[in-house]
Amino acid sequence: MIRVLVVEDSSTVTKVLSHLFAQDSSIEVDFAANFAVAKALTEQNEYFAAVCDRCLPDAPDGEVIEWTLAKGLPTIVLTARMDEEERCRLQGLGVVDYVFKENRFSYQYVVQLVQRLHRNQNYRVLVVDDSQVARKQVKDLLERHLFEVVEADGAAAAMVQLATGEFTLLITDYEMPDTNGVELICQVREQLKKETLSIVGLSGQEEVSAKFIKYGANDFLRKPFFAEEFYCRINSLIEAQELNQKLWQRANLDYLTGVANRRYLMSQLADLALQSKGQGVCLAMLDIDHFKSINDRYGHQAGDQVLQEVAKELKQSLKRFIVGRVGGEEFAVVMPGLTGEQAWRLIEAIRRKISSMVLNCQDQQIQISFSAGICEANDNIEIDELFARADEVMYQAKEAGRNLVLLEEPETA
Fold first, then answer.
1. Count of CB atoms situated within 10 Å of the CB of 371
2. In what order do the strands lie in the sheet with 2-7?
3. Do residues 209 and 220 lie in contact, with contact meaning Cβ atoms separated by under 8 Å?
4. What whole-number distance in Å separates Cα of residue 93 and Cα of residue 400?
């Protein structure tokens, strides 16, 4: 939940914004009709951002804007008019953006911009330029929109940063000593695809734009650029990346638990089969004990909660590995690089932890346990055979009394 301050004297605009913000339950909004009320509200509450009318009865020259910025609040300006002098003044003050009071779409943009600022806090951007002044200019623009920014003074430093941290966006200048921006992108794209990292090239030379795009950049900006153009390009790239991520999740993750679905799990095993080259791979099949009884006694909502709780614990405890839901109450874990004994100890520790938990659901307390079977493939990975073997060992654990983890016994000559 975030809290936003809207300072606006028009009752019509206030009603429209109130309606639009109400559609997002994660945003709480306080409205102030003038500068004095805005000051009083900030004495009582902490705000994430501010949306301010440029001209108020008690602040006709944008005094409220300077005040919210001085309070450290990212500020979006609402205005009925704008000339170049005022535009430059607002940009110089460091506002997030200005929005004309024109129609409903303008106010929708305000809400979307607040939502964008909230999400931007999760994104890291790497800015690469040998000029400290140029880096600072780009960094300041990004930080206004709440991105986390890391700087690099050249290609070598950029590659070090990319190897040691996760980034959403890379912005690189073209003219740099030793390695130019296009050459840097070629190096980056050998490791990171467009779906993983968006790249924007910068240059005063318009003719290098095609080079940037052809060699892996998502977009190009010619210097000098307007802040408004910069933000439009950056936001479009981030939104496209978010959309791609959502599509990937829908295609590859189980909708209820958030772990891999069966199709994605099988594709990962297929990739391991091609890449393993003798490396051991263990597969664990897990089945929640008495799951039908849980559904029958407590209801399907409780059953869903049990599935989510087990999936959450598996994801947290097995971050190195691939966890998937392969059936109603069945999960699978793919563990490359482990021996059977190592995999057994790991799954056994999770079994002990889950079996000691009590899940509270609708004033009911539910105990959870699972049975698991583990098998190991040391050479060629035959996926269907591996699943069948692990499934067989899991059913042996069920027949042996449940709440048990068994490792496939080696074949005897």
1. 24
2. 27-32, 2-7, 49-53, 75-79, 97-100
3. yes
4. 71
pLDDT digits (tens, 9 = 90+) for 187-222: 999 999 888 899 999 999 989 999 999 999 999 999
Structure tokens at 286: 């897990």
**SS3 sequence, the chain?**
CEEEEEECCCHHHHHHHHHHHHCCCCEEEEEECCHHHHHHHHHHCCCCEEEEECCECCECCCHHHHHHHHCCCCEEEEECCCCHHHHHHHHHHCCCEEEECCCHHHHHHHHHHHHHHHHHCCCEEEEECCCHHHHHHHHHHHHHCCCEEEEECCHHHHHHHHHHCCCCEEEEECCCCCCCHHHHHHHHHCCCCCCCCEEEEEECCHHHHHHHHHCCCCEEEECCCCHHHHHHHHHHHHHHHHHHHHHHHHHHECCCCCCECHHHHHHHHHHHHHHCCCCCEEEEEEEECCHHHHHHHHCHHHHHHHHHHHHHHHHHHCCCCEEEECCCCEEEEEEECCCHHHHHHHHHHHHHHHHCCEEEECCEEEECCEEEEEEEECCCCCHHHHHHHHHHHHHHHHHCCCCCEEECCCCCC
Residue 7 · residue 53 · CB < 8 Å? yes
State percent of the chain over pLDDT 90. 79
Do 374 and 406 contact (CB within 8 A), yes or no?
A: yes
- Give the pTM: 0.81
Strand 198-203 relative to strand 219-222: parallel, antiparallel, unpaired?
A: parallel
What residues have CB less than 8 Å from 88, skipping those under 6 apart?
none
Whether the bond between 224 and the residue before it is cis, its omega within 30 degrees of 0, is yes
Residue whose tokens read 């079996």: 355
Instruction: List phi, psi (to 5°) of 112.
Output: -60, -35
pLDDT-based confidence at 413, cuts 50/70/90?
very low
Compute CA distances 287 → 58, 311, 330, 371, 405, whole Å. 67, 12, 5, 5, 10
